Amino acid sequence: MEDKDTQNFERESFKEKILRQLAAGNQSLDDIEPETVFSDVQQDSNSDVNLFADRAKLGEKITEDITHDSHAISSTEIGDTALEEVLTAANSEYEQAYEPNVHNSRTSDEMTTPPEKMTDMTSQKRQTQESLKRSAKKKSKKLAGKIIASIVLILFIVGGATAYFGFRYIKSERQPYSLTDTTVKAVNIPKGSSSKDIGILLEKDKIIKNATVFKYYTKLNSFTDFKSGYYNLSPNMTLTEIAKTLQKGGTDKPVAPILGKITIPEGYTIDQMSNQISENADASKSKTPFTKDAFLKVVTDQAFIDKMKATYPDLLGDLPDKASGVKYQLEGYLFPATYEYTKNSTVTMVVEEMIAAMNQNMQPYYAKIKATSSTVNEILSIAALTEKEANNDADRRNVAQVFYNRINAGMTLGSNISILYAEGKLGQKTSLAEDAAVNTRLDSPFNLYTNLGYGPGPVTNPSLSAIKAAVEPTANNDFYFVADVTTGKVYFSETIAEHDENVKKYVNDKLSSDSTSNSHE
Where are the alpha helices (DSSP H) in 76-210? Predict the structure, then answer.
């Protein structure tokens, strides 16, 4: 009885051991399952191997336990059938635990895809990746091309804009500093100054806008040889005007700035000059500070005239006096030219400058005049008539000789010009009919139809050309001349008959067709 009980104990202990082993195996499966199911995709194949390794180890352990207890099994009354049932149940339980994990660890495609097809798929995948890389490279190249094109376009636009505004800037800098500022400034250019140095000085004095532009402008336009000295320059001057002024040379000392100019045309009378003295030749509609009355007061001031006679004896030594019948003693002695004036200028100074200019232009002829026993007053009287009777140098020289021929022959000069002057019409607009119908019986010392000689004095202020003609006439034997009233051409003749024919042809016949043309204006 005791032995039977011991066997039953051993039998029950074996069963319990088997169950314990199976329970331990199930526990191991529970621990492995999460790692198998939720492992990373890259570790799937390794998980399958480990799974089967665990299964093998578990089987070996069970086998060892069965072997270890084989004697106990054989001594028991458990039969082969019962043991087989137990092992079958354990195996079945094991299969149920492992099979789902094995199937879940592989995808259906991997289970069914042959190795050759897997190689093709890998190749296709590689080709696809290479194709994507090539496409990406093409897109990168296109993007780079667009970026480069955009940069080039931007540079082109910026370059064009820079050139345009640069041109506009340079063009602006070339213009006068101020078109309306006529202020004159004294600028000293030191000796040895370069165009760059001069430009800096002028920019500092606000004569020009840009020193660099001045430097390159003068260089490109071949303005060189600038001279030192003091210059009167204005902000309204152009770069060309400034450059040309600097080439002429300055003064050793500052000179008062020029405010304007007075232009006296050749052949003007003193009455005409008195109107011109108030006109500023530098600007239209601009007036000088001088008036007509002030001018006439000076030229008729005896104290001033006596002072001038003492200052310029060669010119005014035989000046006619008032009793001679002259209208103005200084008529014919004021040289026609352009005169500048400053803020310090007076009318007296301007008139004296005119007398000084006539004296300077007469200097080369004083000796010759004395050598011919003539006087300056006689020469200027012939020059004044010649100025109005002809309009070119050749005709003037011939006209002057005709006057000398008539005087030498004891004839009157017979000039309409002197009568128009006596009537106060010289310099005014007169018709050809009025000119031809002058009063040759006029009671006046300037009536050179009735009075012999040169007349009391000049009737105009002659040009240098007329003065030269009076001093150096062209020799001829003519006593008469007449000018074509339409062309101004002068026709000369020796006899009165030839002269009358020329008068009929070139004057009378044309008066009927054109009686409104101006003659001696």
Answer: 80-104, 108-112, 115-174, 195-204
C-alpha 200/C-alpha 207 separation (Å) is: 10
Q: What is the mean pLDDT of residues 371-380?
A: 94
Q: Which two tokens stand for residue 375?
A: 């006087």
Contact 319, 309 (CB under 8 A): yes
Instruction: Measure the CA–CA gap between 142 and 152, rounded to whole angstroms.
Output: 15
Give the count of beta carbons closer than 10 Å to the beta carbon of residue 117. Answer: 11
The pLDDT of residue 52 is 45
Q: Look at residues 451, 456, 458 and name the one whose alpha carbon lies nearest to residue 417.
A: 458
> Which residue in this structure is represented by tokens 């994990």?
101
Q: Are 505 and 497 in contact (CB under 8 A)?
A: no
CA distance 112 to 133: 31
Q: Which of 28, 13, 25 is nearest to 89 (CA)?
A: 25
Specify the amino acid at residue 432.
L
Token code pair at residue 350: 């301007």
3-class secondary structure per residue, 68-100: HCHHHHHHCCCCHHHHHHHHHHHHHHHHHHHHH
Q: Helix or strand or coil: residue 15? A: helix
CA angle in degrees (0–180, nearest 5) for 459-462-466: 120
Nearest to 76 by CA among 28, 163, 155, 14: 14
Task: Give 483's contacts (C-beta < 8 A, 6+ positions apart).
Answer: 389, 390, 489, 490, 491, 506
- pLDDT, tens digit, 9 for 90 and up, residues 332-341: 999 999 999 9
Residue type, 333: Y
- Asked if residue 104 lies in contact with residue 32, where contact means CB atoms within 8 angstroms, the answer is no
pLDDT, tens digit, 9 for 90 and up, residues 398-440: 999 999 999 999 999 999 999 999 998 888 877 767 776 788 8
Which own/partner contact pairs does 443-449 have at CB distance under 8 Å and 24+ positions apart?
444/325, 444/419, 445/324, 445/325, 446/325, 446/418, 446/419, 446/421, 446/422, 447/418, 447/419, 447/422, 448/412, 448/413, 448/414, 448/415, 448/418, 448/419, 449/412, 449/414, 449/419
Q: Are 406 and 396 in contact (CB under 8 A)?
A: no
Q: Two tokens at 118?
A: 């897997």
Tens of pLDDT, residue by residue over 72-103, are: 444 444 444 554 554 555 555 545 544 444 44
The answer to whether 428 touches 269, Cβ cutoff 8 Å, is no
Q: Hey, how many other C-beta atoms are within 10 angstroms of the C-beta on 217?
A: 21
- Over the stretch 493-514, which tens digit does the pLDDT of each residue have? 999 999 999 998 988 887 766 5
Interhelix angle 464-471/376-389, rounded to 10 degrees, is 120
Which pair of structure tokens corresponds to residue 194?
């370069």
* Burial 343-355, CB ≥16 within 10 A → b, else e: eebebbebbbbbb
- How far is the C-alpha of 46 from the C-alpha of 44, rounded, in Å? 6
442 in Cβ contact with 414 (< 8 Å):
no
Residue 107 to residue 41: CA distance in whole angstroms = 10
